[in-house]
Amino acid sequence: MGSLYGYYWYHEQLLATPLVWWIFTPDSPLSTSFFTLTLTLLLLDTREGKRTKTCKRCGERRPEGLPISTSYLGRSYLSRKTQEILGVLACATLIKYGLWAVVVIGDYWIKRGPVQPVETLLFLSHLGMVAQGYLFLRHWPFYFGQGVLVGAWLILNDYVDYALGWHPYLFRPDQEPLAAAAALALSACWFLYCLGRKITANKEY
Prior knowledge:
With 205 residues, this protein is mainly alpha-helical. Helices cover 63% and strands 3% of the residues. Strand 1 and strand 2 (61-63) form a beta hairpin.
């Protein structure tokens, strides 16, 4: 429901945007759509009733044929690697655009913009996006190369938004430098996170 409302929020901007750039325009609803698709695939795969085997470390029954760290990633509807990347992309974009919106809305309020119900709902819902992404990303297995691939998507999106000018509409025209800086900083933080995770949690890779 949040994704649908997000696309409605962007509908005027989408109508004014060439079709080729649509995929880069509704950043937040697209990220929640990725997340919804990821959860849907997980639920579908859970219902498949795959063959299981016992984990030697914990004794838990897990789907046969999958590494223990990726046992909850099904293979019936998409390949395991595709599901892994989709899940990482969902988590990364939830966190990035959730925090980005919090920064932009917070800046708007700091500059004495009115605190209205719609902006308050957006602020809280984007904090929720950050929480969703963080909770899942902590336990989501992925390789460093997959993280870099997701980071490349984030950088490409930043380029389209701020170099080509197709960024989401802002509350004030003078927010564009802040919005661009926040987006690039958050993309950089993703690469640092991937590097840190590779160094400190080698078992995930």
